[in-house]
Amino acid sequence: MIVVGPPFVVRATLLLAIIHPPMPYQLSLPFPSRDVPTTSPGPNRCDHQHRLLNLAFNKRAGSYARAAVVQRRLAAWLAEWLEPAARVDDRSAVEVGAGDGLFTKYLAPRFRQLSAIDVSPCMVDKGRLRLPRVAWRVGDAWQLDGEPVDRLYSASLLHWCDAPVSVLRHWRRLTKPGGRMLHGFYVAPTLAEWHSIAGAYSPVNWRSPSQWEACFREAGWRVLRGEAKRHVQQFASARELVRFFHLTGAITPLQMPIANLRRLIGDYQRKFASPIGAPAVTSTWTFFRIEAASR
Ligand SMILES: C[S@@+](CC[C@H](N)C(=O)[O-])C[C@H]1O[C@@H](n2cnc3c(N)ncnc32)[C@H](O)[C@@H]1O
Fold first, then answer.
1. How many angstroms separate the CA atoms of 118 and 95, rounded?
2. Which of helix, strand or coil describes residue 114?
3. Which end of the chain has fewer CB within 10 Å, C or N?
4. For ligand 1, mutation pick of 157, 191, 204, 289 (most atoms within 8 Å of CB)
C-alpha cells in the first residue's frame, strides 16, 4: 500500500506477482528507503498517514492474530504487571487500541466492567467474537471520550502516538482520582537493523524510556515503575520479516520503488542473517512497560 498513482500500483503488483509468485504482499514497508525525504512530515501528511495506517490495521484484522508474534510476546510480558483480580474486580477499566483482543484476554477475567476500544471496525468485530463479555466499541484513543474509569491500558499502541504529552494529559481527565494506567509498547532502539539499511527516516518517532517517563510526568502522572527489555525476534528470511509487518498492519504508506524494496530485502538478508541454527534473520526490539498513577 504505497501512495503512488494507480497505474504504478497495478504495474508494480503485477511485476511482483511475476517475479515472486508466493510473495503475498505488495509494496509496503515499515521503514522506507533512502529515497524518502528525511524531513519530518507536516500535520496534514501526518493525518493522512494516520488514516492510512488505521486502514492498514483494519485491512489486516483477519491475519493479525496469526502473524503478531512480537506483539504476543509483549502482551504476555505486560500482563506480568497486572494487579491480582481480587484487587480490581469491582473497578472499571478500558483498553485502548485493543486490536482483536490479544492483550484484552488477560484483562477480561480480572474486570467485570471492561471496555475495549479500537479505531478499526474490523478489529473490533474480531475482538467481539473472541471475547463477547467485553464491551467493544470503535473509537480513537487519542480523542477518547466517556466516563472516567479506574484503570486504563494499552498494548503495542503508544509508540504510534505523535503527541504523547497531550494524549496522556487527556487520559488523566478520563481516569478517576486514584486511578492507574499500564502501557506496553516499543522504544528506542527498535528495529535498528531496518534503520541501518533503510535510512534515517521513520514514521515512528522512537523515544527512549527516560523520554517516555518524562512525557508521563509532564502530563501530570506519577510514574510508579517502568522497565525496558531487549527482544530478539527471528524470522525465516527478510521477506518473512516484511511479510510480518504487512500482515500485522504495521506498515506506513510511503513510496518505495520495487527495485528499492527488493534491494532492501536482499541487503537485510545478507547483513542480518542469524549466526546460528536454521537460516533466519534477526530483528531487535526494545519492549517497554510503564505503570503510572493519577496524583
Ligand atoms: C499493533 S496493534 C495492537 C493490538 C493489541 N493491543 C495487541 O496487543 O495485539 C495496534 C492497534 O491499535 C489500533 N490503533 C491505532 N491507532 C489507534 C487510535 N488512534 N485509536 C484506537 N486504536 C488505534 C489499530 O487499529 C490496531 O488494532
1. 9
2. strand
3. C
4. 157
Contact 163, 140 (CB under 8 A): no
Q: Express each pLDDT in 165-181 by its tens digit.
A: 999 999 999 999 999 99
Backbone dihedral region of 164: left (phi > 0), alpha (psi from -120 to 50 degrees) or beta? alpha
> Is the beta carbon of 157 within 6 A of some atom in ligand 1?
yes
Ligand 1 pocket member 124 (CB < 6 A): no
Ligand 1, pocket-test mutation among 53, 55, 57, most atoms within 8 A of CB = 57
74-123 per-position pLDDT tens digit: 999 999 999 999 999 899 999 999 999 999 999 999 999 999 999 999 99
Measured between alpha carbons, how far is 234 from 61 in angstroms, rounded to an integer? 23
Does residue 186's CB lie within 6 angstroms of at least one atom of ligand 1? no
**Which listed CATH number (3.20.20.10, 2.60.120.330, 3.40.50.620, 3.40.50.150) goes with 31-294?**
3.40.50.150
Cell 506477482 identifies what position?
17
Q: What's the gap in Å between 250 CA and the centre of ligand 1?
A: 10
Domain boundaries, the chain: 31-294
Category of 288 on φ-ψ map: left (φ > 0), alpha (ψ -120 to 50) or beta: beta
Q: Which protein residue has the closest C-alpha to ligand 1 atom 26?
A: 99
DSSP 40: P
**What is the pTM (predicted TM-score) of this model?**
0.84
Q: What is the dihedral of CA 271, 274, 279, 285, to 10 degrees?
A: -90
Indicate the range of 13-22, 93-102, 278-287 predicted with least confidence.
Answer: 13-22
